[in-house]
Amino acid sequence: ASHADLLHKACDNVLRNALAHTRDNTTVEVELARSGNEYLVSVRDRGPGVPEAELGKIFEEFYRVDSARSRATGGYGLGLAIARRAVEQHGGSIRAVNRDNGLEISLSLPVQS
Description:
The chain is of the alpha+beta class. The chain has three helices and four strands; from the N terminus they run αββααββ. The protein has helices spanning 3-21, 67-73, 79-89, and strands at 29-35, 38-44, 93-99, 102-110. Strands 1-2-4-3 form a four-stranded antiparallel sheet. A hairpin with a 2-residue loop joins strand 1 (29-35) and strand 2. The two termini are 21 Å apart.
């Protein structure tokens, strides 16, 4: 897969995750900004968030915060792991933080000259 394909898949997976977990009749916010030598992409849902102790684990393969909820939405715990791998292959980073009323996943990618 090309670099563009991998990054597209990473963003797609993060967005799909947010859409799967945001509460009914709420929005998912997506923001793109440039800060110095990096692009910053953030995706914020209006879902239940993730327990603080598990925030780093959600990027591990097959990790699911709530297996019953993931089964209901058809998740296998791979989407965010794939996103992390793609972002890191491009010299970037990905992290998750709980915000008021939801989870925010942020991707940081270096600007390619």
